[in-house]
Amino acid sequence: MKxxxxxxxxxxxxxxxxxxxxxxxIVLINTVLSPLSFLLLITFVSRGTLLGVGILxxxxxxxxxxxxxxxxxxxxxxxxxxxxxxxxxxxxxxxxYLAGMSTSELIYSLPAIAILVxxxxxxxxxxxxxxxELLAVFLAMFxxxxxxxxxxxxxxxxxxxxxxxxxxxxxxxxxxxPVYYPITYIPLPFRYIAYLSPTTYAAEIAQNVGxxxxxxxxxxITDWGVLLAATGVxxxxxxxxxxxxxx
Length: 247
Prior knowledge:
Blueprint: H1 2-23, H2 27-45, H3 51-79, H4 83-88, H5 94-108, H6 110-123, H7 128-155, H8 159-175, H9 188-194, H10 198-209, H11 217-241
Helix pairs in contact: 1-5, 2-3, 2-6, 3-5, 3-6, 3-7, 3-8, 3-10, 7-10, 7-11, 10-11
């Protein structure tokens, strides 16, 4: 049974990342350019003062976008190739299917993530403990986006609709919130709006770890509490709203 589950995981990874990366390498350009373009823009505008913040923001964006990419990929496979119908009728559990497809999205984003990790090591140079804390932040973002992406993919009826969902949510979660810059750059009356996004709390934690934002212990605890609670709520809603089997 364990070997069978492993084979199912590998099949999902091969279908959704390895095959596409090997046959259409040009698609990797967009994956790499998306976070790096924002990083370059922020670095030029700030004359290099926000380089470290931008690197951490790029990692948050890459992890969240990886999860959101799952939505369009699953929607394409479900609606155009009827793959989900075949998986539903097979012994493959939904969690194994989701785990394989989620892993494939991370592999697909590895070039961008690897570049940003190297840049973080050079310009942020976190300690092992700080690196572990940053990893926890990134995984929380990835988990939340995977849950959102999987839920929307089972609801979406068309790939065009999926692209619209993905672009809208990526903008709301990684472009508008202060991910690539400190929240202190936002005027106070509008700062409260930024706190409606869980990526704001993730960014605050990451920037505090990198030494770019000074937070009190109480604020750090609050940020972690809100981030984990928001991730938990998103996972709970996704588990209730996901339509694995068509009615």
